[in-house]
Amino acid sequence: xxxxxxxxxxxLTMAACGGASTDQAKTEEKKEAAATSGAAYAIDxxxxxxxxxxxxxxxxxxxxxxxxxxxxxxxxxxxxxxxxSFTVNLNTLAVDPASITExxxxxxxxxxxxxxxxxxxxxxxxxxxxxxxxVAPYDSTKQKSLLPGATxxxxxxxxxKDSTLNxxxxxxxxxxxxxxxxxxxxVIDRSSWGINYKTEGSPExxxxxxxxxxxxxxxAAKK
Length: 223
Hints:
The protein is mostly beta strands. It has one domain: Lipocalin (Beta Barrel), CATH 2.40.128. The chain has two helices and twelve strands. It is globular and about 55 Å long. The two termini are 14 Å apart. The relative contact order is 0.30.
């Protein structure tokens, strides 16, 4: 495949502070993974990234960053992606210092907050996982895409913490003779995966937007 908060997986990748955007990924119950067919392409963990972006209510105080360390593979048959899966190491979740505008706060503090039991609890759930359940052509008359040049609709099971749901979103996929790149940008509701600060109805959780914008760039090479 060729080709923001926290993660993705989905992402990936995947989200803890909420995002301000449109084009919510369609979210459904977990589905069967796509049958494995065609040649396998190994995902390049060094160049594959998941970006995230989150805000407080009304789009205030945007926070954003990146998650690296993706591992997995894609399957390609007759010039098209047919399936695949990858995991993302949430221990690599990083906050961009440019998103921290308060002089008394540091990016490292927010990273620790997001990785703690307050959000992702990476000590117990160190990875996010995405398993493709379907790939279809993208029709711009029926769906909107945050990413220009979308070619396909990807559906897959996204696992965050101990919850798995199926999401569908537009993506731009380019299949070459020996490589695949895929890019996507979409929004998920973090609360659908039970990711809440303190409790779901607490004032601290309410002030954080539930929407999280996820962007990913996947690169894979033929095995």
